[in-house]
Design a protein that fits this description.
This protein is of the alpha/beta class. Helices cover 41% and strands 13% of the residues. Helix 7 packs parallel to helix 8. The structure holds zinc ion.
Length: 340
């Protein structure tokens, strides 16, 4: 049903061979970390939606001058080391451009911890477009896609650090015109790069519209991660989207809500759709402008609270591995997923 994944990998590897080194054979499946390509086999247990730093100041005022990288590293490092101690190997950082995305900071943290860290390209339209740069309102979907594809091909902001997925964001309710444009730009970026699209979405109405729009653009729904799907109350909608092939990202886990996560995972399991589930905390993060970066939430509930609960509830080791290892591999591998 879908095209084979090799093309973007080949193109990347050919380019990489000319410059540095391609870490994988051309026919391997890879993810793109802030330190370059990594075989999916090396991903291990993965946290698919977390944050190191988020700055809600707005697109008109955001600047890397608002934080000191050394200070952020001091605050965040112990929390990342905790993940490592608990067995985690890959950390997917979901802070978009204009909200504090800092690839150089992420690379330093990856180098210090040995975690694979993945950053993103794309724009976040949720919260009423406060985090969109002025050009997002005037440019076409193709122009926006060209910017994002440029980050994939040439690196982010003059670095050689490449995005490993596309992060967009839309508001609840029907998709506005500008959010349709972001989804369209994401679809076209996907078709050129094989980068998976993770969209901050929440409820089902916009999620199902995004899936339809992607299909009209020729993108298969398994290239789409419905971010914050836990906000949808009607679990039938998880099933509906998963049956289309979309990823159901249950990503707000904390120490106090494992029952809700267990219920949502059991629902997917009942329908044989655990293959489409992703879990994470949406935790962290350093907040510029607050004393010592403000209150920080650890990335540990999954390992310490949810996993024992899943075992008690009869989830097998194989199913738990599927949630923590196999699904993140399939969700984030660089792979063009087309509808024929
Ligand atoms: Zn998030």
């Amino acid at each position: 049903m879908y095209s084979k994944p090799l093309k973007p990998v080949l193109i990347y590897c050919l380019t990489a061979l000319l410059t540095t080194q391609c870490a994988t054979k051309s026919n391997d499946s890879i993810i793109m970390s802030v330190n370059g390509p990594v075989s999916v086999e090396e991903m291990g247990e993965s946290l698919i939606h977390e944050h190191v730093l988020v700055d809600f100041i707005g697109a008109d005022q955001i600047s890397e001058k608002r934080w000191d990288k050394a200070e952020v590293i001091k605050v965040v490092l112990p929390y990342l080391k905790e993940i490592k101690m608990l067995g985690g190997k890959t950390f997917i950082e979901c802070t978009p451009n204009y909200l504090g995305r800092d690839p150089v900071l992420l690379k330093a943290l990856s180098d210090s911890t040995g975690l694979n860290i993945i950053t993103n390209t794309g724009y976040y339209g949720a919260r009423n477009n406060k985090f969109l740069p002025a050009h997002a309102f005037t440019e076409t979907a193709d122009q926006l896609a060209a910017r994002w594809i440029g980050e994939w091909e040439s690196g982010i902001n003059g670095t050689n650090i490449r995005p490993g997925f596309i992060k967009i964001g839309v508001d609840r309710g029907n998709l506005s015109k500008i959010h349709q444009k972001l989804v369209t730009a994401a679809a076209r970026t996907h078709l050129q790069t094989g980068l998976t699209i993770a969209s901050h979405t929440g409820t089902a109405v916009p999620a199902l519209e995004e899936i339809e729009l992607l299909k009209r653009e020729g993108v298969a729904p398994d290239a789409f991660i419905w971010v914050h799907a836990q906000a949808e109350k009607d679990l039938e909608n998880h099933i509906k989207a998963a049956k289309e092939g979309a990823w159901i990202s249950l990503d707000g886990l904390n120490d106090n809500n494992p029952d809700h996560y267990l219920q949502m995972l059991k629902n997917l399991k009942t329908y044989g759709l655990l293959s489409n589930a992703l879990i994470s905390h949406d935790a962290g993060w350093y907040s510029p402008g607050e004393v010592n970066g403000g209150k920080f939430r650890a990335y540990t509930s999954l390992f310490k609270i949810l996993l024992p609960r899943l075992k008690e509830a009869g989830f097998s080791d194989k199913e738990i591995r599927q949630l923590l290892v196999d699904n993140p591999q399939r969700a984030f591998e660089i792979n063009i997923r087309k509808i024929h």
